[in-house]
Amino acid sequence: MVDAPARLTVLSGPSGVGKGTVVAEVRRRHPEVWVSVSVTTRARRQGEVDGVHYHFVDDAEFDRLIAEDGLLEWAEYAGNRYGTPVAPVRERLAAGAPALLEIELQGARQVRERQPEAQLVFLAPPSWAVLVSRLAGRGSEPAEVQERRLAIAQAELDAAGEFDRVVVNDDVARAADELVSLLTAPSSPCLSQGTGAPTTD
Prior knowledge:
alpha/beta; kinase
């Protein structure tokens, strides 16, 4: 990644759209891309590595980070808290290199308030039907839990207009490459929509 601007780029989108999958593909295809590792109070899942997937902390440590202004943003989702440690991001940008955050909508809005120069990218599904299928395929959750997830996802999709760019995750490799191209693109005071919003059929 030659002469990439020292810009903070935020990737967000509805639950189930594949944010983690796209970021993993970015890391695989472009290992030079720096991705912030979030802190979370969520329990570690099988196969997850502390400091790689998340920094796993307890509620007391999370409270300390908030009190000491150690988080660029934080949000609560599904009963757990997630946040972005601010120090590594500032160090990366101070070194003149781009930084990528993968966070939820609440956090993206906080970043926009605190760092209005940040580039916000919305990852969208090809269609509502595809997102429903992805969410339903996550496991044998009770119907009321699935309904709640879908309601949240619809509200998150409605927020796409708040973002500078929209990348449609119709192909993981293509979406990853488009995201990297946005990371390396020169800053623009007025960013237009990218691939476009998903259909709702």
